[in-house]
Each structure stands twice: as C-alpha cells, then as structure tokens.
Amino acid sequence: MSGKPVLVVIPHHHRADLLQRALFSVEGYPVLVVDDSVEGLSPSALEDCGLSAEGRSVLRAPGSSGFATVANLGLAAASRAGFQYVLLLNDDTQLEEHALERLLAVMRADARVGAVGPVLIGARGVESAGLSVSRGGTRVRHRSHIPSVPSPVDALSGACLLVESSQRFDPRFSFYFEDVDLCARLRSQGKAVVLVPNARCHHVGGATIDRRSREAAAHAVEGHLQLVGRGWHRRASVVAFALAQIVRERGPLARLRGVWDGVRAAS
User: Fold this and answer.
1) ∠ CA(61), CA(67), CA(68), 5° rounding?
2) pLDDT class for 3, splitting at 50, 70, 90?
3) Would you place residue 220 in the very low, low, confident or very high pLDDT band (cuts 50, 70, 90)?
4) CA-to-CA distance for 8 and 14, rounded, in angstroms?
C-alpha cells in the first residue's frame, strides 16, 4: 500500500487524564482517538487533550465495545484514509522519545515483518518483552529478558503494537488475548512478530479494567478459552492455570467467581 506512513490509534475507555499523557508522547504524529467511553469525552476533556488540533480527531464508538471492536474501527478508518501502518496505543501508555521511529524503521526494513512492538515498562520494571506462547496456546507468559537486537517473539501486547492498517482483530474477543490471536494468525501467514528492544513504552495497566477484579478474570478466561479452541484438555489447562494464578497472587476471592463467569461466557 502506498500513501501516508502511520496513524496512531488510541482506544479510549474512561481515563481522560491518562489519555492526555498518551497523546503528548506521540506529539507530531496524526492521531485518531476511538472514544469507547460510556458517556463520551466531554468538551473540556477534548480541549485539554488538544483533540481539536490539526491532525487529531475523535471517532465515537458505541461505548464499552471491547478492545478488538474499537481497534478495528481505528484500523478501518486508517485504511480508508490511506495510512499504511497503524500504531495501536493504549490510553494508559506513554512512548519514550524516538520509540515510534524505531518501530517504524524495523517494520519498513523487511516485508516479512507483520507486527512490531516495544518493551513495555510497568511500575515494577519490565512488564513485557514480548510473549511466549506454548504449543496449543494453553500457556501465555510475558517475557522479561530484553534481547540486544530486534528479535522474533511468539506474540506482542496490544497495549502498543504497530501493524499494517489492513489487519483486523477477531471481534469475538472482548478484552484480552485478541493480540495473541492476531500475532498467531500473522505467524501462520509466514510473517514475523518482532520485539524492538530499543523502543520503550511505559504502561500503567488496569486503566480500563482492574486487573485484580472479577471482571478482569472473567474476560481473561473467556479470551484464553477462545484462543485455545474446543479441545477439553486445553480448556481444562487454561482454567487450572487461571485458578493457580489467583491462588499464587492471594485472591481476591471474587476472581475465582470471575473464572466461572469466563467459562460460562465461552461455552
């Protein structure tokens, strides 16, 4: 595809204060905020975020649509506008200086690369240097080792992910594992999924859904079961790993009920 190089697409749920920081970190790039908040961004929030400025726009989503659906709206809008690439960026992230240029350089250097992402930095240090996915998909773990050069990984987090605008997430995923599914499809097409170690992105995490909530547990289990398919042994493993994680992290007990919610939703 020819045309404009990259559009930053930021799915937004409800934290306008964090959105403002994310926008500041991509200053100088065209941005589309896909507003999936229930009430919609207020006029004061739009002004504070500078979303009336040239090169910045807002696309209203129905509200609480889920990441895959919202990201697809942004990808489709970018494709229609002639952008070759889309940087999907959570509204609770901040790119470090030159990170986007480094991601673009790796993406454009090799047509066999289907997705690239940075090292995600959380409150306790490295949150994700890509993901490792076991055969069958029952174990999905964030990597902590940072390679010295751009390196292929099994998957990357959708919190900050550069892909071609022609790509789409599977809308059957609501929250969680839609990024792993997309990366798996890219790799099945012979495309590489590459971590760019000298690109860094700071991630607050949990801004849309509290990671230790019943709702987060339900979405995570539902998405993971969607990823592994119908095999009973794989599904049993997913549930067992989810329960073990909750026990290891010492609850809260509501997350156990969330696992059951996720199993029912995926049935």
Assistant:
1) 95
2) low
3) very high
4) 18
SS3 161: strand
Which segments of the chain are extended strands (E)? 4-12, 31-35, 56-60, 83-89, 93-95, 113-122, 125-128, 131-133, 140-142, 151-152, 160-164, 192-203
CATH of the domain at 36: 3.90.550.10
CA 90 to CA 81: how far, in whole Å?
21
C-alpha span between 218 and 241 (Å, rounded): 14
208 is a domain residue: no
Residues 234 and 152: beta-carbon distance below 8 Å: no
Domain boundary among 203, 225, 244: 203
- Decide: residue 46, CB within 10 A, 0-12 exposed, 13-18 middle, 19+ buried: middle
Q: What is this structure's pTM?
A: 0.92
Give the total residue count for the chain. 267
Alpha carbon distance 229, 135 (integer Å): 13
What is the tens place of the pLDDT at every residue in 100-119? 999 999 999 999 999 999 99
125 SS3 class: strand
Q: Using alpha carbons only, how large is the chain's radius of gyration in Å? A: 18
Whether residue 235 sits in one domain with residue 177: no
Rounded to whole angstroms, what are the CA distances from 84 to 9, 135, 164, 201?
13, 32, 6, 22
Q: Are residues 70 and 180 in the same domain?
A: yes
Q: Which domain holds residue 232?
A: 214-266
CB 191 within 8 A of CB 114: yes
Q: 158, 183, 203 — which closes off a domain? A: 203
How many folded domains does the chain comprise?
2
